[in-house]
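To whoever picks this up:

The parser on our side crashed when reading a file containing two proteins. I've narrowed it down to the boundary between the first structure block and the second sequence. Both blocks are reproduced below exactly, byte for byte. First block:
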Amino acid sequence: MISGIVKYLAKKNDSLIVSYKALRRLIGIMGILLPIINILGGCLIAKIPIQQSISMYYYTNMRDFFVGLMFVVSLFLITYKGYNTLDLITSIITGAAGLGVAIFPCFSELYIGQKVGIFQLSPDTSFIVHLTCAALFFVLLAFTSIFLFTQKHKDSNRVTSQKKKRNVIYVVCGVLMLACVLGILVSILILTKQQIYDSKIILVFESIALFSFGVSWLVKGETLFRDK
């Protein structure tokens, strides 16, 4: 009877591990799909030109998708436990920042003089909160990828060859996310609104950052380079 209970608990624990890995994969897939679906949905359904940033899709037919997906990703991050307290706290703050990105719209010249978002803030105030949350979101995702995902499991005394490969990917993805955040901030400071709109440079940086985020979490979910 005792052996039966042990087998049941072991099977249940394996099931939880599989579910946890599936959650990581799902987070990664959603991160990659966010820019793709927004762009395709705007172009194919509403026949609108590609926007200057992903956040600008808040003001298009893709608003519900943009806000909804950001909420889903953010809530998953908030409920993600990780391996230790630092992992837990980082994930919660990252998720909260993601909610801020969805709740506080970016600036749009179409809404000058009007109140925007759930809290009916001025466009300028909402944009400051939005930009702060977006920067925090990506910086913490980069921190997670570089410093938390690369840690050894507490029950393991060695680093496998596959783990070494995963660590390289985590670091590359994290560095790319940080570079994109810096690129966005520099673009906002030195480029005119027309240059940003024409070049779509912010959209490019955001898409690269989201793709890097998605790849990092897909690898963490053992989609690639899993241990045998």
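<<boundary where parser fails>>
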Amino acid sequence: LSADFEDGHLYQAAKGVRQAVKPWLMSGAVVVGVGNIYASEALFRSGIHPNRQAGQVSEHRMRSLSQHIRDVLTEAIEKGGSTLRDFRGHAGRPGEYRNAHQVYGRQGTPCPKCQRPMRRMVQAQRSTFYCGNCQR
């Protein structure tokens, strides 16, 4: 969440990367803490399709992605994370960020931006949720 992360860090790190942007984000090599749920949410907010090669994402979109990663992580921390099954936070309560998911777990439901059905695909053995209209 440091300011260094905003200054073109993702764009520079992605140069020449042919891997899809979502698994690349989740690898931990570039940024730590962006798991499956948070990657899907940040990519949706940034309008980036999760299958796009990381090295082909424009600098403008990567800067937007950096900001949205910070926003999603900050919101998730404030809400105690995302509880999907049996996770409990430090106070023994489930994470409330699950109620703020815009895309994760919403396959077939209307996109909050364009109302078209949300989609699901599998990347690196993980479910990825996205809007085929809003994320290009």
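After patching the parser it read the second block fine. Residues 21 and 54 are 4 Å apart (CA to CA). The helical segments are 9-14, 21-26, 36-46, 59-78.
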